[in-house]
C-alpha cells in the first residue's frame, strides 16, 4: 500500500511540473553530520552564522521535526539554453549567475511544493512540512539519499539527467514511505570543477571553503571583500556558475521549459555603467521578484564596482568616479578601488588627495591609502578558463 502511495505522489509531483522526485528516510548518514561539523569547525562558513546556529537540526530531519517518517525530495530543472561561461569575456557587462537571471526560485518551487502538499493532505491527511532553502535542512545529502543524484566534487548535487542544474526542495511527511535507492558517485577521475574555480575555493575534492567562493562573496558576505580576492571575481556580480558549467554530466541536461527561469532581458548581460547608476528605488524596481533584490542596493553596487575595477576599460572610469561620494561606505570603498585600477596615476592622485581631506570612514580611507601604495595593480584573469587566457595573450 505504501509503495502505491509513493508512486501516486511521484506521479502528482511530475504532473505539477517537478522534474525529479525521490524518497529518503528521515535520517541522514553519519558522514553528513560529521562533514557539517568539520565544515563549521574549519570556519568554512565565514559569516553565515545561521549555518552553525542549528547544526543539530540541520543534520538530522527528526531533530528538526520529530514526527518526520519520510522525506519527499523534489528537483526543478533550471538548465540554461546557452553555456554561461563566454559572458565572462564581455568585461563591460556584468554576469549574474544562471540561477538568479529569472524569477526567484524560492517562489517558483514553494508554490509547487504547496500544491503537492495540499494534494497529499487531501488524500492521506496527516502532518507535513515543506522546505526550500528556508529551514535548517541539508538538502544535498537528502537528495542523494533519495536517488536524485550524488554530491559531486564541487559539493553540489549532480544528476544523470539534469547535470548540475537542479534546484531542490523537500516535504517532510509523518507518513512512513519506503525510501528509493541512494545514488552513487559518478565523478570518477574527473576534476574539472576543482580546476576551473577562479578563487581556488576547494581545499580538497568535496570540500568547499565558502569564504573564498564568489557565490558567498557576492551574495552572502555583507562587508568589504578582501583585496586579494577582488581581481579573481572578474565580472561576476551575483553568484558564480563556473564549477557547475564545466561538469561533463551537463551534456544530458535540456534547457528548462519553466518560463519563470528564462533570463530577464535586463539581467542577461547588463551593462556595468548602467548598473553603477542605480539608486535604491531603481535597484528595487529592476530586481523586483528576483533573488538579487535580497542583497540590497549597496552590496550589489559593491559587486558592480569590483567588476568595473576588473574591466580594464577606461571608458568605465566615469561610472566609478560618480560613486566616489556615495552615501554608502561599502560603495565608496569599491569606487575608490576601481578608480585607482582604471585611472592614470596623476588623476588617481588628485582624487585621493581630495577624498582623504574629507573622508572619515576608516575602510574607505584604507582603500585610498592602499591605492597610493600599490598604484594600478594590473589586469585580472578572473578565472581559470583557457579561452580567457588565450584572448588575453592576443591582447583582445
Ligand atoms: C550555505 C549554502 C551555500 C554556501 C555554501 C555552499 C556549500 N557548498 O556548502 C554558498 C553561499 C557558497 C553557496 C553557493 C552556491 N549555492 Co548554495 N546553498 C547553501 C545551503 C543553504 C546550505 C548548504 C550546506 O548545508 N552547506 C554546508 C556543507 C557542510 O554542506 P555540503 O555542501 O552539503 O557539504 C558536503 C560535502 O562537503 C560532503 N563532503 C565533505 N567531505 C567529503 C568527502 C567525501 C569523500 C565525500 C563523498 C563528501 C564529502 O559532505 C558534506 C555534507 O554532506 C543550500 C540549501 C540547503 N538548505 O541545503 C544551498 C544550495 C546548496 N545552493 C545551491 C546553489 C544553486 C548554489 C550555487 C550554484 C549558486 C550560484 N550559482 O552562485 C553556488 C554553488 C557553489 C558551490 N560550489 O557549492 C543549491 C544547490 C542545488 C544542487 N543541485 O546541489 C542549494 C541546494 C539550494 C537549493 N534549494 O536548490 N550555497
Ligand atoms: S561557485 Fe565559482 S567561486 Fe564558488 S566554488 Fe564554484 S567555481 Fe569556485
Ligand atoms: S565536474 Fe567532474 S568532478 Fe566536478 S562534479 Fe562534475 S563530474 Fe564530478
What structural keywords apply?
single chain; 396 residues; alpha+beta; 2 domains; four-stranded antiparallel beta sheet; two-stranded parallel sheet; 19 helices; 8 strands; disordered C terminus; binds cobalamin; binds iron/sulfur cluster
Main beta sheet: 4 strands, antiparallel
Anisotropy-based shape: elongated
Proportion of beta-strand residues: 5-15%
The parts where pLDDT drops under 50 for at least 5 residues are: 378-383, 386-396
- As a whole number of angstroms, the C-alpha radius of gyration is 23 Å
Structural class: alpha+beta
Work out the helicity level: 40-55%
Say how many strands there are.
Answer: 8
Q: What does this molecule look like?
A:
The protein has 396 residues and is an alpha+beta fold. The protein folds into 2 domains: 2-80 and 104-173, no CATH class; 192-391, no CATH class. 41% of the residues lie in helices and 9% in strands. It is built from 19 helices and 8 strands. It has helices at residues 2-15, 30-41, 49-53, 55-58, 61-64, 105-123, 139-145, 192-196, 214-220, 242-245, 265-268, 272-275, 280-286, 296-310, 317-321, 329-342, 345-356, 362-374, 386-393; strands spanning 20-24, 70-77, 95-96, 128-131, 150-151, 157-158, 166-173, 236-238. The strands form 3 sheets. It has a 4-stranded antiparallel β-sheet with strand order 1-2-7-4, sandwiched between helices. A two-stranded parallel sheet has the order 3-8. It has a two-stranded antiparallel sheet with strand order 5-6. α14 (296-310) runs parallel beside α16 (329-342) and α17 (345-356) runs antiparallel to α18 (362-374). The radius of gyration is 23 Å and the shape is elongated. The structure holds cobalamin and iron/sulfur cluster (2 copies). One iron/sulfur cluster is lined by residues 154, 197-199, 201, 208, 213-215, 240, 242-243.
